[in-house]
């Protein structure tokens, strides 16, 4: 995996500022549970095959067997991945007879996926 951190030689030395020059900023009004939930979402999005699955579902609902055929993967692998994505609220499922269909949970997920991919292309 590519190391994206700047190397010390690439970053100009910043002049030290005196801690007394600044006051503390107010704490965020965002609840702690929002941060822990967002971390779970980003962890789930941090796997290429899970992100590929979400991108596929961005284009519409799909059955587990259809997803498995698209990625040439075993049903058990795809089912496990989808359960994980459902567990963090990124996908929703519905059953129709023997088939289980998955779709993105909502437009927030669609935006997360699209924005991440668009940003990576910049």
Automatic annotation (TrEMBL):
Transmembrane residues, as ranges? Answer: none
Q: Where is the composition biased (Basic and acidic residues)?
A: 1-10
Q: Which GO terms describe its molecular function?
A: DNA binding; DNA-binding transcription factor activity
Residue numbers spanned by region Disordered: 1-30
Q: Which SMART domains match?
A: HTH_ARSR
The record's SUPFAM superfamilies line, in alphabetical order, gives: Winged helix' DNA-binding domain
Residue limits of the HTH arsR-type domain? Answer: 30-122
- Give yes or no: UniProt keyword DNA-binding: yes
Q: Does the keyword Phosphoprotein apply?
A: no
The alphabetized UniProt keywords are: DNA-binding, Transcription, Transcription regulation
Q: Which PANTHER family match?
A: ARSENICAL RESISTANCE OPERON REPRESSOR ARSR-RELATED (PTHR43132), HTH-TYPE TRANSCRIPTIONAL REPRESSOR CZRA (PTHR43132:SF6)
Q: What is this protein called?
A: HTH arsR-type domain-containing protein
Q: What is the lineage of its organism?
A: Bacteria, Pseudomonadati, Planctomycetota, Planctomycetia, Planctomycetia incertae sedis
């Amino acid at each position: 995996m590519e190391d994206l951190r700047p190397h010390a030689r690439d970053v100009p030395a910043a002049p030290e500022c005196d801690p007394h020059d600044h006051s503390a900023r107010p704490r965020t009004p965002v609840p702690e549970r929002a941060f822990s939930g967002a971390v779970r979402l980003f962890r789930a999005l941090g796997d290429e095959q899970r992100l590929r699955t979400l991108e596929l579902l961005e284009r519409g609902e799909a059955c587990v067997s259809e997803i498995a055929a698209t990625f040439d993967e075993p049903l058990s692998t795809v089912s496990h991945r989808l359960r994980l994505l459902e567990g963090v609220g990124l996908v929703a499922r519905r059953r129709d007879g023997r088939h289980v269909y998955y779709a993105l949970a909502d437009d927030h997920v669609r935006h997360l996926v699209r924005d991440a991919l668009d940003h990576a292309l910049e």
